[in-house]
Amino acid sequence: MINQLEPLPDFLVSRYRNWKSSLYLSSQDHFKNLASSGQNPSSMVISCCDSRVHATSIFGADAGEFFIHRNIANLVPPYNPDGENHGTSAAIEYALKELKIKHLIILGHTDCGGIKSGHSLHSKNLNPDYEFINKWLAILLPAFNKIAKDVSKVKQVEQLEEESIKNSIINLFSFPYIKKAVKNKNLSIHGLIHNIGSGGLKFLNPITEDFENI
Predict the structure, then answer these.
(1) What pLDDT is attached to residue 84?
(2) pTM (2 decimals)?
(3) Which of 9, 122, 136, 162 would suit a FRET pair with 73, their CA atoms being 20 to 30 Å apart?
(4) pLDDT digits 0-9 by tens, 76-112
């Protein structure tokens, strides 16, 4: 198997060497400190796998500031130790129990392919080629059930982007230690949507339960 692998592409080798001789060199003391002292991030960001989403860039963060977990459509499954989808749940558990993060951010974005696929799935337009994606996007069903069905598909998808984050927050509170941490003021949870084209950022207002521009 391994002997069938290809060498690292030249453009990646070139980019690495450029990073090592420039950005790394200018901050090597910081990186060496991270290596010797370990990580101590204040926040966890659950974001989408979409290559256009760059959480550290959006917030101007340096290495070591954010504990980042990425998955399709930035979803959080319900608390279910005996069930499936343990990758995201394990990352959340590590962030809370080991890293003691103070802030947990669910970062959605516009034009999300995962949300579009989830809308198609729950609209009974199943893509049979998706062996794993369809099972993962089943998490979206409660959010899908809340969106208006008498509007255009574009509007439905936009609503689903928002409802999916609300649903993930509801699922977060099904984790006993998260519910306890929030109650004890040891953790704050935030829902955000990044507009890829405009650079805008909306936050979920806990009072109005609507997304508002920052």
Answers:
(1) 84
(2) 0.93
(3) 9
(4) 999 999 988 799 999 999 999 999 999 999 999 999 9
Judged against a pLDDT cut of 90, whether residue 34 lies above it is answered with yes
CATH topology of domain 39-213: Beta-carbonic Anhydrase; Chain A (3.40.1050)
Domain spans, the chain: 1-38, 39-213
What is the β-pairing status of strands 201-204 and 188-194? antiparallel
Question: Which residues does 45 contact at the CB level (< 8 Å), separation at least 6?
Answer: 55, 66, 67, 68, 69, 105, 107
pLDDT of residue 15 exceeding 90, the answer is yes
DSSP string, 148-181: -SSS-HHHHHHHHHHHHHHHHHHHHTTSHHHHHH
H helices of the chain, in order, are 10-21, 23-26, 28-37, 55-58, 86-97, 113-122, 133-137, 141-144, 153-172, 176-183
Backbone angles phi, psi at 99, to 5 degrees: -85, -15
Contact 66, 59 (CB under 8 A): yes
In order, the DSSP letters of 79-103 are: P-TTSS-HHHHHHHHHHHHTS--SE
